[in-house]
Design a protein that fits this description.
Structural class: alpha/beta
Mean pLDDT: 96
Order of helices and strands: HHEHEHEEEHEHEEEEEHHHHEEEHHEH
Distance between the termini: 28 Å
Low-confidence stretches: none
Oligomer: single chain
Bound molecules: pyridoxal-5'-phosphate
Radius of gyration: 21 Å
Length: about 375
């Protein structure tokens, strides 16, 4: 019998994205669809400004410029994250200070922050892993007391919330990703979310190659010129038209993903009871968006399970190599540090397929095969 492949991710077209692209009248930046997307984000994420950019990486780089990161500044962040979280600040000469995660959520452990704060600390960058919120009250309290900026890497967290506050609306700045691997996508794209209003004016300049073209477009100045740092960060109107279709369906997308998430969870509760695996814990303060369903395996079984699933044409996958142990990340660490939970989780975490192309029977097939593996490998 021929069995279908179940891919880890399968980006899809879900609304009238292609019609919107055909309808574009003005291809230059900040056209009709860019404006619509930006309004949608402001309304649904409740931030003061939402600027469409080419990627979440671009949004994080803009954040680093906006908070005036200087060489030798220290930026606190988890090590269990994507390179961009660190690179954005490293590019401006700052030093990433990696802290450990809470093994229940894989999010930065607020208790670890106090120990690494110095006179050089400038900001805390939180990552809402799998779209599950960090403990934001604790983190913002520390930041207020120490006069630090809070930046939310909300790449995975669109429409998730912390105590009913949308993620990306809590820190001074937030960054979303619309990469094809995320819940809502346009191939590649992102947004810088601004909650601290002092950043709005300058953010528009930085996005537009360091020029005040925005003021020129609005007839406030007669010519535009070079006024600040900047780069080409704005998202193309072509991508924005596609993105607009996706955003219109965003709530449906998340509803469907959460359904899959809950199906997996129900199935795996049994295996957890037998202590073969651990499944994600959602803290009381967090409302997630079904971005990732992962399991944590006991005893280094991850590679074997991955191979087993592969042989069944199920393409599950691991996640981050800790940044503090990575080839480049080591350059920023003087004394060898040990981040116990990060190192453990990086070896033990397996992500299961989760996308809109999955039917209930696919989820059951994935779950059953994991169960079969444990029957054979106790
Ligand atoms: C995907 C991701 C990014 C990068 O997003 P791009 O839009 O591809 O730049 C950054 N941080 C985290 C936590 C991510 O998951």
């Amino acid at each position: 019998m021929k069995i279908d492949k179940i891919f880890f991710n399968q980006p899809s077209i879900i609304d009238r994205e292609i019609d919107y692209i055909r309808n574009i009248k003005n291809f230059s930046s900040e056209g009709f669809y860019s404006k619509r997307c930006s309004q949608w984000l402001k309304r649904n994420i409740k931030c003061k400004e939402a600027l469409l950019v080419k990627s979440c990486t671009a949004a994080l780089e803009m954040a680093a410029i906006l908070i005036n990161v200087k060489p030798k500044d220290e930026i606190i962040m988890p090590s269990f994250t994507f390179t961009s979280t660190a690179n954005a600040f490293v590019l401006r000469g700052a030093k990433p200070i990696f802290v450990d995660i809470d093994p229940e959520t894989q999010n930065l452990d607020p208790k670890a922050i106090n120990k690494v704060i110095t006179k050089k600390t400038k900001a805390i960058v939180v990552v809402h892993y799998a779209g599950v919120s960090c403990d934001m009250n604790l983190i913002t309290k520390i930041a207020k007391r120490e006069n630090l900026y809070v930046i939310e890497d909300a790449a995975q967290a669109i429409l998730s919330s912390y105590k009913n506050k949308p993620l990306g609306s809590i820190g001074d700045l937030g960054a979303l990703s619309f990469h094809e691997t995320k819940n809502i996508h346009c191939g590649e794209g992102g947004a810088l979310l601004i909650n601290n209003p002092k950043f709005i004016k300058r953010a528009k300049i930085i996005r537009d190659k360091g020029t005040n073209r925005d003021l020129f477009n609005r007839n406030i100045v007669k010519k535009y010129t070079w006024v600040d740092y900047g780069s080409s960060y704005q998202l193309s109107e072509l991508n924005a038209a596609f993105l607009y279709g996706q955003l219109r369906q965003a709530k449906n997308v998340i509803r469907y993903r959460l359904k899959i998430f809950k199906l997996y969870r129900k199935f795996f509760e049994n295996l957890e009871k037998k202590k073969f695996i651990k499944i994600p814990k959602i803290p009381y303060y967090s409302k997630p968006n079904g971005h990732i369903f992962y399991i944590l395996l006991k005893k280094k079984k991850l590679t074997n399970l991955l191979n087993f699933l592969n042989s069944k044409k199920i393409y599950a996958t691991f996640h981050y190599t800790p940044l503090h142990n990575s080839f480049f990340g080591k350059n920023f660490i003087k004394k060898k540090i040990q981040l116990k939970n990060t190192e453990l989780v990086s070896k033990n975490l397996l992500r299961l397929p989760l996308h809109l192309g999955l039917k209930k029977r696919d989820v059951i097939r994935c779950s059953k095969e994991v169960e079969n593996f444990f029957k054979k490998n106790k």
